[in-house]
């Protein structure tokens, strides 16, 4: 099956009007939209994703469209539809591509209970998954982007999918969402990194998405073994500091960062405990990405 | 004669131990709690069977020979109060 890069922008736009189906990690997504900004976003950042047939099983049917004709001219807005209903209030039209990313995050987080879904970036090197849970502002996405730019495999910058069946982490590599100063930080860290359009004025400030490495997308059917659980905290001018965290505290902190922990009940508790058991757990303070990368690379070589 | 009471675990729980910490999952409420080692060991005892206050105190005394009776009583009172407030323990009248 071909990937999205085989379509010209014009072909992509035409197919998206009637439902463009593609694979994101273990999920098949059907996106219907006539919004050019969304088509541009896919054309720039989703080229390596595999197209799937409309007759294949589709996990998420997503539609992005303008609420009414009037809204095309007066403070234009966009609605996100999931399986025909609207889970969110509309957003400004200029944020349509970002809305697609946020909406797809929501679809996965709320409809994939065969995984325990932790709000955490996850990357892999030497077969070992490093998991970075974090609240907004902790610097997890920046750290994740820098690691990915340094050759680590991206599993996700946003959600760690821990399989209830086998305890492995399943990839769902997507463009890495960066906001505000992090965009400049990563552009300076790796001038070769490719970004989509910068969208200003969102609820999170200015955001842009960094292209996920083709290699990460190609290997998105290969799970990784949880190895390190690291709670990052970006503190300007701080020294790089990795300190052990007790497994009990790590378990509690991770449960608080899991989207569907309460939905899964005792299965979520048991699976999370298994993961914590096999991970070394740390708190991590940093301000210099180069030092962070060197430290984690050394840890993954041990 | 005063009636005797038993301390009992009120709901289904899962308990995991890592060194001197325990993590407890309340299967009814879905709440997860981080416990110090001693509280965890008391819960482990109570998971096997309901126990009287005296029996719990006796176990605590074996674990902490250096503590006096007042200190052991204070710890046990605090333990029972905390876990009763969390709806994990109940004080039941001992069957005759």
Structure description:
The complex is a heterodimer of chains A (302) and B (96). Chain A is an alpha+beta fold and 302 residues long. Chain A has two domains: 107 residues, no CATH class; 187 residues, no CATH class. Chain A is 33% helix and 29% strand. Chain A is built from ten helices and 16 strands. In chain A, the strands form three sheets. In chain A, strands 6, 7, 8, 9, 10, 14, 15 and 16 form an eight-stranded mixed beta sheet that branches. The mean pLDDT of chain A is 94. With 96 residues, chain B is of the alpha+beta class. Chain B has a single domain, classed as Outer Surface Protein A, domain 3 (Alpha-Beta Complex), CATH 3.90.930.60. Chain B contains three helices and six strands. In chain B, the strands form two sheets. In chain B, strands 5-1-6 form a three-stranded antiparallel beta sheet. Chain B has a three-stranded antiparallel beta sheet with strand order 2-3-4. Chains A and B meet through helix 7 and helix 9 of A and strand 2, strand 3 and strand 4 of B.
